[in-house]
Amino acid sequence: xxxxxxxxxxxxxxxxxxxxxxxxxxxxxxxxxxxxxxxxxxxxxxxxxxxxxxxxxxxxxxxxxxxxxxxxxxxxxxxxxxxxxxxxxxxxxxxxxxxxxxxxxxxxxxxxxxxxxxxxxxxxxxxxxxxxxxxxxxxxxxxxxxxxxxxxxxxxxxxxxxxxxxxxxxxxxxxxxxxxxxxxxxxxxxxxxxxxxxxxxxxxxxxxxxxxxxxxxxxxxxxxxxxxxxxxxxxxxxxxxxxxxxxxxxxxxxxxxxxxxxxxxxxxxxxxxxxxxxxxxxxxxxxxxxxxxxxxxxxxxxxxxxxxxxxxxxxx
Amino acid sequence: xxxxxxxxxxxxxxxxxxxxxxxxxxxxxxxxxxxxxxxxxxxxxxxxxxxxxxxxxxxxxxxxxxxxxxxxxxxxxxxxxxxxxxxxxxxxxxxxxxxxxxxxxxxxxxxxxxxxxxxxxxxxxxxxxxxxxxxxxxxxxxxxxxxxxxxxxxxxxxxxxxxxxxxxxxxxxxxxxxxxxxxxxxxxxxxxxxxxxxxxxxxxxxxxxxxxxxxxxxxxxxxxxxxxxxxxxxxxxxxxxxxxxxxxxxxxxxxxxxxxxxxxxxxxxxxxxxxxxxxxxxxxxxxxxxxxxxxxxxxxxxxxxxxxxxxxxxxxxxxxxxxxxxxxxxxxxxxxxxxxxxxxxxxxxxxxxxxxxxxxxxxxxxxxxxxxxxxxxxxxxxxxxxxxxxxxxxxxxxxxxxxxxxxxxxxxxxxxxxxxxxxxxxxxxxxxxxxxxxxxxxxxxxxxxxxxxxxxxxxxxxxxxxxxxxxxxxxxxxxxxxxxxxxxxxxxxxxxxxxxxxxxxxxxxxxxxxxxxxxxxxxxxxxxxxxxxxxxxxxxxxxxxxxxxx
Lengths: 316, 550
Description:
The structure holds 2 protein chains of 2 kinds.
Chain A: H1 2-30, H2 35-40, H3 47-56, H4 63-75, H5 89-124, H6 128-141, H7 145-159, H8 172-206, H9 209-216, H10 221-258, H11 264-273, H12 277-305
Helix pairs in contact in A: 1-12, 5-6, 5-8, 5-10, 5-12, 6-8, 7-8, 7-10, 8-10, 9-10, 10-11, 10-12, 11-12
Chain B: E1 4-5, H1 7-12, H2 25-31, E2 60-64, H3 79-88, E3 93-95, E4 101-103, E5 106-112, E6 115-120, H4 134-145, E7 160-167, E8 170-175, H5 182-186, H6 196-202, E9 219-225, E10 229-234, E11 250-254, H7 258-266, E12 272-275, H8 282-288, E13 291-296, E14 301-306, H9 316-325, H10 328-334, E15 340-341, H11 356-365, H12 373-382, E16 389-394, H13 399-414, E17 418-423, H14 431-434, H15 436-439, E18 444-450, H16 456-464, H17 478-488, H18 493-510, E19 513-519, E20 521-526, E21 529-530, E22 548-549
Helix pairs in contact in B: 2-10, 9-12, 9-13, 11-18, 16-18, 17-18
């Protein structure tokens, strides 16, 4: 059962990667601009040099031939060479993947702990606490990451000097310091959404008949919350957490740029601007894979949380 | 015929909210100084160097507008690569901070008009201690000419017949025609000397992140990690004993936006940077007290490229009228926050690297490009252009370009012309420069442009000579062509300068491009750091040899 599920998911992953790589390759191919021109900064090159550079990067071949060339190499683990850096794409991605992974992980922790925490408080403690959760989540949901980044830098880096304004840091302790502001900038709006969904899921469960019955039977509140409310509210919370965390991968580009971090997202943006095809393809594959993996993890979590949910079928 | 198209620098400027209305009148005025008094230096108030550092500094993070892509001089074409290569490598001849060309790794003598003999300094050696040989020099220069390497400087050597080792410490360049522009190029990226044996061993990896480089400078490469930066440390084998590098580690780091740069500088995460494309956050930096800002001589020109003469801009009277109606003071205060000069020629007066007396005299005698709405309206009427339309290629995503486009729209409307904008994305702006299709239907677009060395001719030649890389619509003025042709073959610097000055005067009247303003080269360092070159020469010659604590 589980093996079949994983095999099915792997096949879906392969199909997604193939389709995504073709679409991205095609889109970049059609987009205006020329990688050689971007490379030479508009400096006019003698035609002979141009020909050599075009042949080196297979730019003189047809679209399908170029795609086929890239695909057959990629299948063999060779993601090609960056035109702008003249370096293996695998090496370039490897040196940056931990920044994005660390950032997304840190932001996910913030979202899970604070978002679900706030949602629980709001859902279980109507009154002033709930109102403040509602207000603060409404405000933070409205703040896009790039605005959050600017505000956080101005306040905590420039004015208060608590955290560094840019860069990655060199060791674990300084990494944590460097990653804190970006992680909050990234997490802020998703955190609000998770808090709100958590809150309403808990409210909904708390109003259910079986919970009301349990209350009338005098079951202690702790047990009531844990077994009757949280357990049932866990499915929508997991769903929304999974979706928001997966979406962080895409938003990370904005935050990485704002904080001058060497992550994959920021690199994807600059490579797309330079029409550095091999790099764009390589990073896209990594991001698509991560997205699919997170979704599989969410599906597995459903099965654990609710034995009635069959693997692979979406819970509601 | 080398040239730079530095529109990328303009692109790097973030679309951060600029308080356009807050014109810093004081800065604007001090920057426009010079007036019409004839005997003032045109670059008065601008510096070329900063006080030499005296104390050791453990580390410096220096910002460039994006990550460095290559450390191979034949691929160094834009600010980040030039800054990195000039930090660590040296060329045959050297541009002083004033732009004057003098001996570098070699001394130049010219026994005949078509022969250049380079005598290599016997002390010169690479980081690994090996001496610089004629074979290294010939190899390095030939890499530019070898089309299979795909370098960007091949055309610089168009008048070269041969490059050969002619003695134990001698290299001779034989020319097809006299070429007094070549020494300037050899004092720039095309003249950088690398170690032949090392480069051959590295092969294609030379200058890439996984490869390495072998140069002769006071700072040597420690690491090149994409996304992190280029790290350089003092070379223990540096061949000039008078130079004592004081910074234990310099990291060149790509910082994409004005906001990141500013918060980095004010929080000491970044200790220095150069900028000349118009920094939107300059007022904040000036008032922060965390940094010292030097106003260095710039070499670049902010101009409107007239890319088509088929339309209404084909009439020189209309171009002149547009120039007269343009509010340059607003550009200086709003876009450059005061860090730019009013133009007299297309050339920035910071590029007078030779024949300075001749250039200064001619420049001071030329008037500032005038602002005169009444006269401009008359010109448009005389040209029969009232109510006619021209199209500006622009990008609303590049704040500086968008603001200057607005200035041109206002100028056109004020004199009875109409404008249409064709806006493209920031990353496609480059296509106006390189793709004839992108220029179809466009009458002109904006640029910040510079040549490879301190000579007004370096930029001018690219747009007025037939076949010039930025001569987009066959601009063909026999007088300018003849003046520049003579200049290129004239040995005497003052005589050459006089010829180039005449060409510039004519270009200021004919307006193949309309000069907007002349950017100042800003050098920004945190307090306590000093010694970096302040002029635009940092792009082409070591700029951190005197860097240190004060």
